[in-house]
Amino acid sequence: MPIDASKVESPGWWLQRLGKKLLDEVDDAVDADGETEPGLETLRRFAENKAPLPKVPGVDPREARDWMRDARTNWTSLVIDSPVERMHVDGFRFGTPDSNAKDATKGDSDANRVWQENALDADADLIHYGALSQRRSFALVERGDDGRPVITHETPRQVAVEHEQGNRRRLAAGLKLWRDDWTGDTRATLWTPEKIYDFVTKTQRPQFSGSAASLRSWDAFTLPNTADGERANDLDMVPLVPFINRRNRRISGFAEHEDVLTIQNRINLSLINLIAAMKYGAFRQRYASGLEVDEDPITGQKLQPYKLDIKSLWTSGDPETKFGEFAATDLKPYVSAVQAAVQDLAAISRTPPHYLIGAVVNVSGDALKAAETGLISKVRDRQRTFGESWEQTMRLAFRVLGDEAKATAFHAETIWRDPESRSVSELADAAVKKEAAGVPWRQRMEDMGYTPTQIARMEVDRAEDAINAQAVADATAPKVTNLDDARAKRDQRPVIGRGDSDPVAA
Q1: pLDDT for res 499
Q2: Which pLDDT belongs to residue 213?
Q3: Distance CA 451, CA 391 (A)
Q4: Splitting the chain (506 residues) into consecutive groups of 10 residues, what average pLDDT does each group show?
Q5: Does an H or E element contain 378, and which?
Q6: What's residue 390's pLDDT?
Q7: DSSP 3-state assignment of 319?
Q8: Separation in Å, CA 38 to CA 26, 210, 355, 400, 470
């Protein structure tokens, strides 16, 4: 039965509107200024070193396609990977106005459990990479079979959302469109704050005009214990959280490498020209003048009098014959063109030059740190934006658990790992100076890079050491001999973190 799409904000109307919005962004489009805006497919191809081959005058791409592919060097992937590898979430704080000051500084154990249950130590990087490489990504929060929240990474190639008019923080609807590999059908799930709708079509590549009164190829997908593919949304809100990259450039998102695609094309052209010069112009061409060349008696074509061979010597019985050679093509201009383009790419993307060039000789630590200043600033900017999205994701997870206090806790804070590289001696020296300035011990440990889990464990260990130290000074004081209970309590303290191989606290 066709899906009615004529009524505004009806399920069919949302399916058509969001479906068209999703599919229109896949391919390149021409904007109002006449410029080509890359689609998601183009952004993906550049990130995977599959940029289109440029046209080189005098070179037939059908004959040179293989070596032209080899000439491409993928700098755009480094532009994406450089910030992603410095974005790691260590935990969350859910301090509320009713929380005491001490609890407000600690990581949240419930948030840590949700994080670990969903393997987000690994999958969070997928969300960050997806946002940087595809303009945005999404976290979908649903209720699992055991009643616990399930958080999954979703891509803009399958998901589209629409915000409420005049409110960029609240979603009016969300759609996921995907291919069911088991049945070959195309499935769609639509979320509104009140209902969840499921649709199905036999069409492998569905199209949406955006103005059709009905969707004839679509039908409701009926699940067990549901009627007409419709069920209640017990979260009372769309369970999708957008992670939008560089919203200041474009409200819908701007990929990390989107403004250096033309530079990447320039680099590829320069490299292909370099390889072509190496293949066709680097070899010194020989010539002979005043030489009679025999002809093939059958075809009448000139015969090659000499064969290029390192073991052969060219001779002629005619004293008027002269031999010579042309100069080889100078490759330095081609190399300089590549280097200039790489420098432009580094400046625009704020990628440290030594990441791209890979040559670090007699460079001081201060110089390297200064070179990474732009990258660190960029990472901190992304952390501020994505931190809000992670906090909303956790609030949705607590809504699934029925914890209304944390589901509405807008004092939540994402604890990010420090993106700046510092040596152990630098961290320890800073901790000593902060202690003299009166900075609390827990804050100093966090500044040294320890996770909330490690800090909680160290608190227990410090208490044990203090008791045993007092026992040495006072023989009548009880010694701690059985630490099982203390360590059991210690191990219950959260949060997301690294292993035990981190530097020892000063």
Answers
A1: 47
A2: 76
A3: 18
A4: 83 93 92 87 92 76 74 88 93 67 64 93 94 96 94 96 90 94 92 94 87 82 72 93 94 93 90 80 72 80 74 75 77 87 91 77 72 91 95 95 89 89 80 87 82 80 80 61 53 49 42
A5: helix 373-401
A6: 96
A7: coil
A8: 9, 22, 26, 38, 68
pLDDT at 233: 93
Question: Residue 105: what pLDDT?
Answer: 55
Residue 260's nearest CA partner among 191, 350, 328, 138 is 350
What was the pLDDT predicted at 375?
92
CA proximity to 75, closest of 337, 353, 334, 419: 353
Cα–Cα distances in angstroms (integers) from residue 62 to residues 55, 67, 161, 267, 327, in the given order: 11, 11, 42, 21, 29
What count of other Cβ atoms lies within 10 Å of the Cβ of residue 68? 19
**Per-residue burial over 8-37, b = 16 or more CB atoms within 10 Å of its CB, e = otherwise:** eeebbbbbbbbbbbbbebeeeeeeeeeeee
Cα–Cα dist 386/379, whole Å: 10
Between the CA of residue 137 and those of 129, 153, 168, 236, 240, what are the distances in Å? 8, 7, 16, 22, 10
Per-residue pLDDT, 502: 47
DSSP single-letter state for residue 175: E
According to DSSP, the residues that pair with 4 across neighbouring strands are 214
Measure the CA–CA gap between 134 and 39, rounded to whole angstroms: 9
Q: What is the pLDDT of residue 279?
A: 74
Closest C-alpha among 195, 163, 166, 191 to residue 177? 191
**Across the strands, what pairs with 191?**
174, 196
Q: Amino acid letter at 74?
A: N
Say how far apart CA 503 and CA 426 lie, in whole Å. Answer: 12
Amino acid at 60: D
Distance CA 196, CA 180 (A): 18
- Which residue, among 75, 89, 69, 145, has the nearest Cα to 391 in the 3D structure? 89
Spatial separation of the C-alpha atoms in residues 79 and 75, rounded to whole Å:
7
Give pairs for 25-29: CB < 8 Å, separation 24+. Answer: 25/156, 26/157
pLDDT at 190: 95
Rounded distance, CA 165 to CA 385, Å? 21
The helix/strand/coil state of 274 is helix
- SS3 percent helix, strand, coil of the chain, rounded to 5, is 40, 15, 45
How far is the CA of 270 from the CAs of 11, 226, 307, in angstroms? 51, 60, 33
Q: How confident is the model at residue 479, as a pLDDT?
A: 54
